[in-house]
């Protein structure tokens, strides 16, 4: 998934981002509400982890902007304001979930996974096609019973191809969902990752290039 972490404490923001990247998410970071709105206007995020007490633009206003835009992005408010009235107020703004500080990283990751499932069409917990089985929870991939040791990027690209269920997926879509904002679209990162994925999947070839469109799984 593509996740935006909006947190004005740099060390905490970086810690959250690194934890989520270990789960193969593409993660961007913003340290104030204004920067968050700039990124939201450019990128299609699945989940925004949003601190409420932000400089420049308050977190509540960022949430209002997102909800008012009618996008499918899910909002998880992450804040030290732990009173029931605070939680009710945050959810009333349109936030989809509310987690108070201090928190456990595994719980945060699990809540983000849950929110991410809501912003996509329903999909089976284990993805299967053409003899390939991908288990997101266990982070395991098999082809015809053979385990495939994929990198995080290869795993995420394969997951997007499986979710497309035979439809073509553009390189732009893969770049948006698998890489973060620091990725250079001209480096050929998508092409190189798909090339490595093809080699690991083995024969007969499964990933097909659709000229002028992108890639699809046979």
TrEMBL record:
Keywords: DNA-binding, Phosphoprotein
Annotated GO MF terms: phosphorelay response regulator activity; transcription cis-regulatory region binding
DNA-binding region residue numbers: 124-218
GO biological process, alphabetically ordered: regulation of DNA-templated transcription
CDD domains to which the protein is assigned, alphabetical: trans_reg_C
Transmembrane segments: none
Superkingdom: Bacteria
Protein's UniProt keywords contain Phosphoprotein: yes
GO cellular component, one term: protein-DNA complex
Alphabetical list of SMART domains matching this protein: REC, Trans_reg_C
Domain OmpR/PhoB-type: 124-218
Modification sites for 4-aspartylphosphate: 51
One Pfam family in the UniProt entry: Trans_reg_C
Entries under InterPro entries matching the protein: CheY-like_superfamily, OmpR/PhoB-type_DNA-bd, Sig_transdc_resp-reg_receiver, WalR-like, WH-like_DNA-bd_sf
Domain (Response regulatory) ranges: 2-116
Name of the protein in its database record: DNA-binding response regulator
């Amino acid at each position: 998934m593509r996740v935006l972490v909006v947190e004005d404490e740099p060390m905490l923001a970086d810690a959250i981002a690194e934890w989520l990247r270990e789960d193969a998410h593409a993660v961007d970071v913003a340290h104030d509400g204004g920067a968050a709105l700039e990124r939201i206007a450019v990128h299609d995020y699945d989940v925004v982890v949003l601190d409420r007490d932000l400089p420049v633009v308050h977190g509540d206003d960022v949430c209002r902007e997102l909800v008012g835009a009618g996008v499918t992005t899910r909002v998880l408010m992450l804040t030290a304001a732990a009173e029931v009235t605070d939680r009710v107020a945050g959810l009333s703004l349109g936030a989809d979930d509310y987690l108070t500080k201090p928190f456990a990283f595994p719980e945060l990751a699990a809540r983000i996974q849950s929110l991410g499932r809501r912003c996509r069409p329903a999909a089976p917990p284990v993805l299967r096609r053409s003899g390939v089985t991908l288990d997101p929870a266990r982070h395991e991939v098999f082809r015809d019973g053979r385990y495939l040791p994929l990198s995080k990027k290869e795993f995420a690209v394969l997951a997007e191809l499986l979710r497309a269920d035979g439809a073509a997926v553009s390189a732009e879509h893969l770049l948006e969902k698998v890489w973060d904002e620091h990725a250079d679209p001209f480096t050929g990162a998508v092409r190189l990752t798909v090339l490595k994925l093809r080699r690991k999947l083995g024969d007969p070839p499964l990933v097909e290039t659709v000229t002028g469109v992108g890639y699809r799984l046979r």
